[in-house]
Design goal:
By secondary structure, the chain is α+β, with helices and mostly antiparallel strands. The chain folds into three domains: about 60 residues, Roll (Ubiquitin-like (UB roll)); about 170 residues, Threonyl-trna Synthetase, Chain A, domain 2 (Threonyl-tRNA Synthetase, Chain A, domain 2, 2-Layer Sandwich); about 30 residues, no CATH class. It contains eleven helices and 18 strands. The strands form five sheets. A five-stranded mixed sheet has the order 2-1-5-3-4, sandwiched between helices. Strands 6, 7, 8, 12 and 13 form a five-stranded antiparallel sheet that branches. A hairpin with a 2-residue loop joins β7 and β8. α5 packs antiparallel against α6. The longest helix has 22 residues. It is globular, with a radius of gyration of 26 Å.
């Protein structure tokens, strides 16, 4: 069969060939570095079977999508490790975030950051085993039965909330199976550098009426030196932290009487006024003129702007002469 590469070149493969076969046909080096593929613009696993006329693009860790696949697989390795150490915990969700990933768990007994060492050690075992990661799909009823068998109530809820025509897919690595859209790395052994960084509370599905879960954050990079450079950057950023500098240079104070609002000190006011004057000079030079609008405005204006419908929960509201009003969310 014939498939087509991003540059338009034609590639002839055997019938039933996978994305991994396409990568190998292009070059041995690409086959080693491939982590996923795009088929007709859709990101998928290397195990995805190709069809006549497909447009194929091999994805590596040099690509943004490749790093996302890599980090998402790290989240699954974290989930497998946690379930191994704490078998009674329940799994929620584990998406990719900037520079890493997180996974939400429902623990019977609370854990702390001191548990990270043993979790990371278990993750390293899973990675060293280089276990193949396999995708499979199930009809809704069978999917619910599978997750019910594993006593994963959060997964059952997610399945039940999927659209009727949704493809319900799972990923299996050894004895561990998780509900997931994917794609993932072909095996756990491709993970080279990761670290768990912090722990926090998170309401299930972001709703404060739901149970508070435990969220474990981590970072993951293609190489160890890239991860070290990331942590070095964080250390440098701490030296330039505005709260630290504000205190040391006596620019402003953060007091309980105004949480989240700076109290500008004399040095801070000098700096603030200089910056404000610079801002004014630049705008005046470009032909702008200044106006000033009220800080509190009526509900009708915020409905027109869209703020009332989308951000009301995060706005400060009041009533003036019986009419709903709100403080300007940005100024």
């Amino acid at each position: 069969m014939k498939v087509y590469l991003r540059n338009g070149d034609q590639l002839v493969l055997d019938g039933g060939a996978k994305c991994s076969d396409a990568a190998a046909a292009i070059s041995e080096g690409l086959a080693r570095s491939a982590v996923a593929a795009k088929v007709n613009g859709v990101l998928c696993d290397l195990s995805h079977k190709l069809a006549e006329g497909d447009k194929v693009e091999i994805v590596t860790l040099k690509d943004k999508e490749g790093l996302e696949v890599y980090r998402h697989t790290c989240a699954h390795v974290l989930a497998q490790a946690v379930k191994t150490i704490f078998p009674t915990c329940k799994l929620a969700i584990g998406p990719v975030i900037e520079n890493g990933f997180y996974y939400d768990f429902d623990f019977n007994t609370p854990i702390t950051q001191e548990d990270f060492e043993k979790i990371e050690a278990e993750m390293q075992k899973i990675i060293k085993a280089n276990t193949p990661i396999e995708r499979f799909e199930l009809p809704r009823k069978e999917a619910v039965e599978l997750m019910s068998k594993f006593k994963e109530k959060y997964k059952v809820e997610l399945i039940n909330d999927l659209p009727e025509d949704a493809v319900i897919s799972f990923y299996k690595q050894g004895s561990f199976t998780d509900l997931c859209r994917g794609p993932h790395l072909p095996s756990t052994g491709k993970i080279k550098a990761f670290k768990l960084t912090s722990i926090a509370g998170a309401y299930w599905r972001g709703n404060e009426k739901n149970k508070m879960l435990t969220r474990i954050y981590g970072v993951a990079f293609a190489k160890k030196d890239e991860m070290q450079a990331y942590f070095d950057m964080l250390e440098e950023a701490k030296k330039r932290d505005h709260i630290k500098l504000g205190k040391e240079l006596k620019l402003f104070a953060l007091l309980n009487e105004g949480k989240g609002f700076p109290f500008f000190l004399p040095n801070g006011m000098v700096l603030k006024n200089i910056l404000t004057q610079y801002w004014r000079d630049l705008h005046r030079k470009e032909g702008y003129v200044e106006i000033q609008t009220p800080i509190i405005l009526t509900r009708s204006l915020w409905e027109t702007s869209g703020h009332w419908d989308h951000y009301k929960e995060n706005m400060y509201t009041t009533k003036i002469d019986g009419e709903d009003c709100a403080i300007k969310p940005m100024n």
